[in-house]
Design a protein that fits this description.
By secondary structure, the chain is α/β, with parallel strands linked by helices. It has one domain: Rossmann fold. The chain has 9 helices and 5 strands. It has a 5-stranded parallel β-sheet, sandwiched between helices. α1 packs across α9 and α4 packs parallel to α8. The protein binds cytidine-5'-diphosphate (2 copies). The site of one cytidine-5'-diphosphate (CDP) has 16 residues, from α2, α4 and α8. One cytidine-5'-diphosphate binds next to α2, α4 and α8.
């Protein structure tokens, strides 16, 4: 029997992080926001003056990532999201982050991981998988408000352009592209409040847990 891993994937600002946090609290599981790892590598690579299109160089930077950087507010900025998606195309970067994510997922009591490739590559055997989405316009509005709340005021159109560019890059890359796993539950949160989305996610995971317990 595998441990109870909940894989939460989906595009930028779909609400997957909020849902992952709520699921972690509801099921008593630790949560890993894997996007932060890529954001960390992107920020480190930029600070090092690395050519972001150089897979070997950025891959080497990825091996130096340490947990203390993950709390840095610089990782939550708009710029860091763009840097993250640029470095995330390199297989060398993805390989450098693999063991940490798999070890987190292998915790004896189970875990929740959110990202782009959790249900497809990191934890293909996860007993519970969600693919959270919403229209680009709604996601851009959410991200725009979130950035404003962090003191980063940007035009809505620019945030929408970011979201579209990131969707295309994350979904179009060869290495672990963002895609719904065949056995993932689709959760379209376009018309949902956070509460409604979290409730729907909890119900899906409760059903998956019941199946897992009897398997
Ligand atoms: O919060 P948001 O969805 O905007 O981004 P994030 O989850 O922090 O991820 C930032 C970027 O990291 C994404 O656009 C992906 O390019 C990359 N990423 C990835 O490739 N694989 C993951 N498991 C998580 C993030
Ligand atoms: O992790 P991801 O980038 O997918 O999204 P998030 O950080 O969970 O959510 C992005 C923003 O949208 C946050 O400020 C959430 O509070 C907000 N949100 C929302 O307004 N309605 C939802 N149904 C989900 C998230």
């Amino acid at each position: 029997m595998t441990t109870f891993v909940i894989a939460v994937d989906g595009p930028a600002a779909s609400g997957k992080g909020t849902i992952a946090t709520r699921l972690g609290a509801a099921f008593g599981l630790p949560v890993l926001d894997t996007g932060l790892l890529y954001r960390g590598v992107g920020v480190l690579a930029e600070r090092a003056g690395a050519d972001l299109d150089d897979p070997e160089r950025v891959g080497a930077v990825a091996t130096t990532l340490t947990a203390d950087l993950l709390d840095d507010a610089a990782l939550r900025t708009r710029a860091a999201g763009e840097l993250a998606s640029r470095v995330a195309v390199h297989p060398q970067v993805r390989a450098a982050l693999l063991d940490f994510q798999r070890s987190f997922a292998a915790r004896p009591g189970g875990a929740v991981l959110d990202g782009r490739d959790i249900g497809t590559v990191i934890c293909p055997d996860a007993p519970a998988k969600l693919y959270v989405t919403a229209t680009p316009e709604v996601r851009a509005e959410r991200r725009w408000k979130q950035l404003a709340g962090q003191g980063e005021s940007v035009a809505y159109e620019d945030v929408l352009a970011d979201i579209r560019r990131r969707d295309a890059r994350d979904g179009g890359r060869e290495a672990a592209p963002m895609t719904q796993a065949p056995d993932a539950n689709l959760l379209d949160t376009t018309e949902m409040t956070i509460e409604q989305a979290a409730d729907a996610a909890r119900r899906i995971v409760e059903a998956a847990r019941a199946r897992w317990e009897t398997s």
